[in-house]
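Researcher: Let's try something more involved. This one mixes different molecule types, so please make sure each is placed in the same coordinate frame as the others.
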Amino acid sequence: MDLFKKCYDFTRADEVKSQGVYPYFRAIEENEGPVVSIEGRKIIMAGSNNYLGLTSDPRVKEAAIKAIEKYGTGCSGSRYLTGTLDLHIEFEEKLAKFLGKEAVLLFSTGFQTAQGIIPTLVHRGEYIISDKDNHACIVAGNLIARGATVDLLRYKHNNMDDLERVLNKIPKDAAKLIVSDGVFSTGGEIVDLPRLVKLAKEHNARILIDDAHAVGVIGKGGRGTASEFDLVDEVDLTMGTFSKTFASLGGFVAGEAKVIDYIKHHAPALIFSASPTPPSVAAAMAALEILEQEPERVTQLINNAEKVRSGLKEAGFNVIDGRTGIVPVLVGGSDETALMMWRRLYDEGVFVNVFIPPGVPQGRQMMRTSYMSTHKEEHLDYIIETFKKVGKELGLI
Ligand SMILES: Cc1ncc(COP(=O)(O)O)c(C=O)c1O
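Model: All components are placed in one shared frame. Result:
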């Protein structure tokens, strides 16, 4: 049997393309933030994670250009060897201070961060307890750890009764890590952190929270999930990304200095991969400075998302409730309807992300929309009106 048979047999994408409703890998030709150009047309972007609209901020661009001029375009080595710049260290210190943690370690992507730290920290005979809806990078980290015969247990999504049930199955004195998204990337819900922390204390577990969609979005001045609940000291490790609020590329983990130092000397994903490039680090650091100086952007983001959330709910859409930058609209159990809705929104000038199985469970097909602090009233009104028009056409409202 040829290894590539599965590739030759894969026709689903071509079938969807032939129906004209293929939503993925669309090339953006220009990007001003809330408005982008695709296929020569201006379209309102309602699917980006550019939460504070900083990818086109002149201060962020300038910082990236200056870093290229000073350090060049890449580091050509891992942090461990020749890839550490003073810029990496400066940013780690600033981010640690912002998050109220002793130390931060940068990785080259958020995905690599989870994949790097989970198997590095959890060893044979120790336990990972993971929310069933955690992001794919946590799943990848868990699987690498399980390959090293770590015990992996999963609990129902954001269900603390189920977490307690799972914890009760594990010896109290065993070393364990509870892992959860802070803001869940698909549904946009916030983890029930107060109960999670209480259970972790009772069961002697450490906590890792993935704040990819939380930093710059929730918490005091956008300081993320732990800050939202006044539990910064109780959350052992917070990880995140620079590909959303921070308008760049890269990942980080924040925590106790001794733990960060251990990860630094043991995580293969850090040691055997080139460090984040100078413009990526400089752009993310400039974005952090803007976040600190202009916290009103966070409020604006939440208000913008809320305007659309309540507008769509009022119109009769099945919207998952929340108070983050993500507004998911459930569209029933048909992939065809979901893809058609995406196409109609796109034709009318609104870009959203369509999620169908296996990305979401069957029946949870959705238009996952997300907002920026830089969306204007007229953009948001247009998004709501267009959803109404298309929703009526498809019999969804
Ligand atoms: C919850 C969550 N964690 C991690 C990541 C990965 O971040 P990055 O884009 O830096 O690889 C993402 C991005 O999609 C995410 O949504």
